[in-house]
Amino acid sequence: MGGIGGVNLRNELPNSEKMKFLFSEGIIRAKNAPFLYSTPEVTKNIDWDKIKGMLLGVAIGDSLGYPVEGIPPNYKLKRYGEITDYIPTKRSDWKPIGVPTDDTQLTFWTVEVLLENNGYLNVKELADRFVKERIFGIGSTIKGFIRNYKDERKPWYLSGVHSAGNGALMRISPVLIPHVKKPSNELWADTLLSTLLTHNDPLAISSSVAFVNILWKLLQMEDAPPPNWWIDEYVKVASQIEGGTRYKTRRKGLMYSGSGYEFINTYVRKAVENEVDILKFSNKIGSGAYLLETLPFVIYVLCNYSYDPEESIVKAVTYSKDSDTIGAIVGSAVGALHGAEEFPHRWVNNLTGRLSYRDDGRIFKLLDKIKSLFNF
């Protein structure tokens, strides 16, 4: 692995040391906050079913949202009503079964790298894995990363695109797995470097860390938290890491320029207080791949529906535009909170478990390997 500034970023170094060094070189576009060096708190033993749910939720939400991705919610409702089951597509041979896109692929390729390295997140190997085979529904930022890393042969830590897209947040959940029984600040380093790999942006980095903190706490909860908890927990962490970058909304009639966390703190909290209809909220704030749309929408769904994992995912994929990714993110959260057993059995039974074309059952085999390797 190459080095910069005369220092060698060796693969065997702890990721916290790599993170510290990359901050010192000014490479990471985020704030080097004390939170990143804290140890996450453990208050109770975490059940395997919740780990499984966190990962399975990504695949379920992705597969439910994929056939209607890009369709504005108003048109989606007129054509389909609420999305409650897998919609047949050409890739599913016109059967009502769940097939993956990039959300599921990148998530479970991260799982593969963790398994191959006994829980160590080897970011160089993760980069190699991401460019190895075809990605379904690939986004522009991941395309940019592949161009930087594979075509221009930049080192992994210089290949991330300055993008506030949601393509890192959607795949971040596996980084928790190795730390559940051995919590340390390496969790935050793994989260940050995994994000940096493709998205070197303050909002992308801060949202990944804040969301992993939320997932960590959900894994230890038995009941859905109150609505404002989601906002408070996100803002508490993201505000320390995001820094002073200003982001602008892209919606007509909604003028905002400022931090991502303050946008959430203001607009989502106000919408919760006023019990704004989810379609109205989606149309006003937006629900595309830009994190200033993805994050508020995801948090609003969780504020209102997290007590019911099925309803949460249905609302996430129906009332959003980037429906596969938003479904995947919401799916990971409610899966972590409720566990895999609480997902409708039809969703699990009709999920192909593919990561490629005809490798049915692959994600279920990876789940079994996680359970075995980490002794859940």
From TrEMBL:
Origin: domain of life: Archaea
GO molecular function list: hydrolase activity; metal ion binding
UniProt key word Metal-binding: yes
Keyword list, A-Z: Hydrolase, Magnesium, Metal-binding
Cofactor (UniProt): Mg(2+)
Positions bound to Mg(2+): 101-103, 322, 324-325
InterPro entries in the record: ADP-ribosylglycohydrolase, Ribosyl_crysJ1, Ribosyl_crysJ1_sf
Record note on cofactor: Binds 2 magnesium ions per subunit.
UniProt keyword Transmembrane helix present: no
Family: Belongs to the ADP-ribosylglycohydrolase family.
Name this protein carries in UniProt: ADP-ribosylation/Crystallin J1
